[in-house]
Amino acid sequence: MSVEPWVADGEYREGAVDLLGILAYGALAAFERLAEDARTAPTLSDKVHGATMAALQIAHFERVRDRLAELDSDVLDAMQPFHEAFNAYHAHTKPKDWLEGLVWTYVGDGFAADFYREVAAFVDADTRALVHQVLSDQGHEAYVIERVRSAIAADRKVAGRLALWGRRLVGEALSQAQRVAADRDALTSLLTGTSDRPGMDLAAISRMFTRLVENHTRRMQELGLQA
Amino acid sequence: MSVEPWVADGEYREGAVDLLGILAYGALAAFERLAEDARTAPTLSDKVHGATMAALQIAHFERVRDRLAELDSDVLDAMQPFHEAFNAYHAHTKPKDWLEGLVWTYVGDGFAADFYREVAAFVDADTRALVHQVLSDQGHEAYVIERVRSAIAADRKVAGRLALWGRRLVGEALSQAQRVAADRDALTSLLTGTSDRPGMDLAAISRMFTRLVENHTRRMQELGLQA
What we know:
- The structure is a homodimer of 227-residue chains.
- Helix content of chain A is 78%, strand content 0%.
- With 227 residues, the first copy, chain A, is mainly alpha-helical.
- Chains A and B meet through helix 1, helix 2 and helix 3 of A and helix 1, helix 2 and helix 3 of B.
């Protein structure tokens, strides 16, 4: 049960719908990436893994859709404002092979998930629980780490290429996030709060970015890559 | 509960594992096709439909995998013998656009599903129930019919191209089915039966092919296409 007094506020609701719209689009985008990984997987077992992870994204998508319906919002409408940003991100980050696809999901989704969790600290308890549920790892991280590490072990040159790739992914993600933030006032106001609603001041936002970058560095290290 | 006396028979079990292996591979192949349809979908709503249907195939895949585990068989091992036939089918039937992709799923999967149901008449009750469950339509047929019909209404030329495409799909499916039948004696013996186990004689097999072709013709007509 949500008991926060500001939940009924119009701007808050708009921001929450934006957050859920991004999450829904993110799940659909991750589905596409994982399905493509499955298609290009080197073995049948990798194909099954990719396909299973892709299907899980649709289960997440459906949960977010149902929560949006509770907020009287249609998932397609909620996703629409983020179409361009996601399209641009995808167009600028096309993996050249299966390994780059794996890193795409791990690094890109990891970074996005961290950011969503940061924002979720300032939404109502129901929405927050949903965000955490949808973003929980289901064994994919360990899988990607194992696959990338063994590819590097087999060919050291892979490490340099994938390290560059990881940096490019984060750069693109930040650039699209900025675009979205500039466009969607209700969403940014989730983070900054209002006089009635908790939020981050500038110093807190800067600390948040530090956390995001630190987590990214840790993820790259887990892959055996220089951030 | 299965009570058929021949369930413990080694050749029967091998045939049933083959059937489930094909079903698992078929679900994975349909997943890939539907995910690709989602990727190339003209609208966000079509994308969501395709992705949802793709995820459903993985739910089917997981059911078949669990049934195979009950039969002490690993799904990857059960799928392996059909890798070449599915690969060849996919390589020879690459849709040129989204509409051809829709017809691929509807016509190809429809034909395959009819055939699996025919074979399922001769397997144990547990496996038969699973086959019917996995093959039940979940609203995708009505969706494809609506989309293809409205594409034809918008441009009559589409009908001729898709009619040719549908014929090619069935031709390829039959050719791969023949290849599999020639390779997998246990599977064909599911259909033909043994002295202890019911099956089809040659006349019944020929009637089955007539049914398969009639159903295909009906499906093409529902799309508004000449079979």
